[in-house]
Design goal:
The chain is an alpha+beta fold. Helices cover 27% and strands 24% of the residues. It has a seven-stranded mixed beta sheet with strand order 1-2-5-6-7-8-9. The chain has a seven-stranded mixed beta sheet with strand order 10-11-12-13-14-15-16. Strands 3-4 form a two-stranded antiparallel sheet.
Length: 327
């Protein structure tokens, strides 16, 4: 009998039935080790010159694909792209992964995750910080890339207190100017944008004098420079990180799920404030990153959310970093 003849659907189903039958054996024949029901901690470290970069998983959400998740492509096209990436049938999965950079003199956290969540699917940043050996009070600088809830809500604890008590908190000047403007909030025409405005008030009210605003093109910390990548939001910001001859890009949300929007950079995700500008930014960003072969940390890339981007005939593809047990 050939391997091909054994690996057919009927043979696989027969094997499945045998496994199910084995599960019905008397208790004495079963494994004694209970199922753990928990996942391993989600952090991954990368050496970048003299710096140490730690990607921290804040969890992921899986949900039925909304009809207009991609606003300029059909739902069927989006479903096919999700299926091609082996996502659950009819659904998509969006991960969330903040970046911690130890420069040797400062601990810098870029974005803070979703904050406390009752279902546990997200809000895992603090558990993973602890697993990585870092306490919130050790963070020197919290850098906000933009003001969507999944990037700022971790600024506060479940009790509403500041989660990083000793950190300086900084945010992009154009982003702050847009979202904290009452006239802009009054003009918001769709529910999602109105909710974003309401959330910025909920999280940032009372912090107006504490949060320092930074400009594009300037260093926000040693070796970390803010770069303009607008479109996803008016003040959306990414970062170059340089140590010695090593460099990487922390791209924030230049793209959402790479299986959809990196492969199809002209698709418009529902979360983009200015879809046409976000599309232009994606091309400029990834054209440069692919030519320079720069390491990229992507907030919504699959964990450990770091890799390289290669240009293809129709878009780009993500080449994930190879997992390494040593730095």
């Amino acid at each position: 009998m050939t391997v091909t003849s054994q690996l057919n659907r009927r043979g696989l189903l027969t094997g499945t039935a045998a496994v199910i039958g084995a599960a019905a054996l008397p208790a004495a024949a079963r494994a004694t080790a209970p199922l753990s029901g928990t996942q391993a901690p989600g952090f991954y470290r990368i050496k970048l010159g003299a710096y140490e970069v730690t990607i921290l998983n804040d969890g992921a959400r899986t949900f039925p694909l909304p009809d207009t998740f991609v606003s300029n492509a059909s739902k069927d096209q989006a479903l096919r792209a999700a299926a091609d990436a082996f996502m659950p049938d009819g659904k998509i999965t969006v991960p969330f992964n903040p970046t911690l950079i130890n420069t040797g003199s400062k601990l810098v956290l870029i974005d803070t995750g979703n904050g406390p969540s009752p279902d546990g699917a997200v809000g895992r940043l603090f558990a993973n910080l602890a697993a990585a050996g870092v306490k919130p009070e050790q963070i020197d600088l919290v850098v906000i890339s933009h003001m969507h809830p999944d990037h700022i809500n971790g600024l506060r604890t479940a009790a509403g207190k500041i989660a990083f008590p000793h950190a300086q908190i900084i945010a992009p000047e154009p982003e702050w100017a847009f979202w904290m403007n009452d006239e802009n909030m009054a003009k918001a025409s769709d529910t999602m944008t109105r909710n974003y405005f309401a959330n910025t008030r909920k999280i940032l009210t009372g912090l107006e004098d504490r949060i320092v605003r930074y400009a594009w093109g300037k260093e926000v910390a040693p070796g970390i420079t803010a770069i303009a990548t607008p479109g996803h939001t008016p003040g959306h910001t990414s970062f170059t990180v340089v140590s010695g001859n090593s460099q990487m890009m922390v791209q924030s949300d230049v793209t959402n799920i790479p299986e959809l929007f990196l492969r199809n950079p002209d698709w418009h995700v529902a979360y983009d404030h200015d879809p046409a500008l976000a599309q232009q930014t994606r091309h400029e960003f990834y054209d440069m990153a692919s030519v320079e072969k720069m390491l990229i940390a992507g907030y919504h890339f699959p964990f450990p959310s770091a890799g390289y981007v290669e240009k293809t005939a129709t878009g780009y593809r993500l080449v994930p970093v190879q997992w390494s047990a040593v730095l």
